[in-house]
Specification:
By secondary structure, this protein is an alpha+beta fold. 42% of the residues lie in helices and 27% in strands. A hairpin with a 6-residue loop joins strand 2 and strand 3. 26% of the residues are buried.
């Protein structure tokens, strides 16, 4: 099942809100309340229809480019994901190597699951389409990812979403080519400096790496923190040492869609079309109900 890590939540809220509003309208409430509920449901449906339609058109109308010959600007790219050279990105919850992660930790309380911690990575990864390579910056992207794992340990439930090495990757965003300057640095010294900086923000450090939520970092958790610091330093040094041109896909300026997924774009466009049709149907249901009141 498709799991959208940003947009899906918006769709769920919209659908749940619409359902609640229709329930309110169906109950024996005052005319003013019924009118307000149906009018709000109609507006929600109209907004959701427009949003889904724009996404469907953005995916369907943007031709797929090849990295080697892609023009600067808004592009659609397809290829395979690969980790940059150096220390690999690891999922904080189970140390699996990956290109991108998001996790959520929930705690059982009174037979309910309460959100306790959540985070996602913002590290760039490599996209290779056979004609060339570019970096993909996931910051600010809508992530539509199908690879999900959930497990329970004690009174906590862990969920994570991953992109891993070799996954098919679809990207819709701004393609730019930039230059980089030559630079060198002492990696070990920079790692120590970064860890020292993190230690000054102890609460944030514990929030990020205290996986068993006992308020302190054990040896395994501290090793995860050190590996993360090493990876960040290596990434900074690698970017500084690059010569010539570096191609990057990033979030476009303005309100244009920035999308990263491991699903085929035809499937994504079809999903958004169906969602837009469903929302348009709900809009007319609400309008028709209003007309009968």
């Amino acid at each position: 099942m498709l799991v959208s890590l940003r947009r899906r939540y918006g769709e769920f809220i919209t659908s749940g809100g619409q359902l609640a509003l229709f329930v309110i309208a169906a109950q024996d409430s005052t005319a003013a309340i019924r009118l307000a509920a149906l009018a709000t449901a109609a507006l929600l449906s109209l907004a959701a229809w427009r949003s889904a339609l724009l996404r469907s058109r953005a995916i369907g109308d943007t031709p797929t480019a090849r990295i080697a010959s892609a023009a600067q600007g808004y592009v659609e790219l397809k290829g395979r994901g690969r980790a940059p050279e150096g220390t690999p990105l690891l999922s904080p919850v189970n140390a699996l190597p990956c290109l991108w992660f998001r996790y959520r930790i929930e705690r059982r309380e009174d037979n309910r699951w309460i959100d306790e911690a959540a985070d996602e990575s913002s590290d760039s990864f490599v996209l290779d389409d056979g004609s060339g390579e570019c970096l993909v910056d996931p910051e600010g992207a809508e992530m539509l990812v199908t690879r999900r794992e959930t497990w329970t340990r004690g009174d906590r439930r862990y969920s994570q979403w991953l992109l891993v090495e070799g996954d098919p990757i679809y990207v819709l965003g701004e393609f730019i080519t930039v230059g980089a300057v030559d630079a060198h640095g002492d990696a070990e010294a920079d790692i120590k400096a970064l860890l020292a900086q993190w230690k000054k923000e102890a609460a944030r450090l514990i929030e990020r790496f205290d996986l068993d939520r006992n308020g302190e970092l054990d040896l395994r958790e501290w090793e995860l923190a050190r590996r993360d610091a090493k990876r960040q330093v290596e990434r900074a040094h690698r970017a500084a040492r690059l010569h010539g041109e570096l191609s990057v896909v990033r979030r476009p300026a303005g309100a244009r869609l920035y999308l990263i997924s491991n699903l085929d774009p035809d499937r994504l466009a079809r999903r958004y079309r169906l969602w837009s049709i469903a929302q348009l149907g709900l809009f007319f249901v609400a309008i028709g109900w209003l007309a009968m009141r």
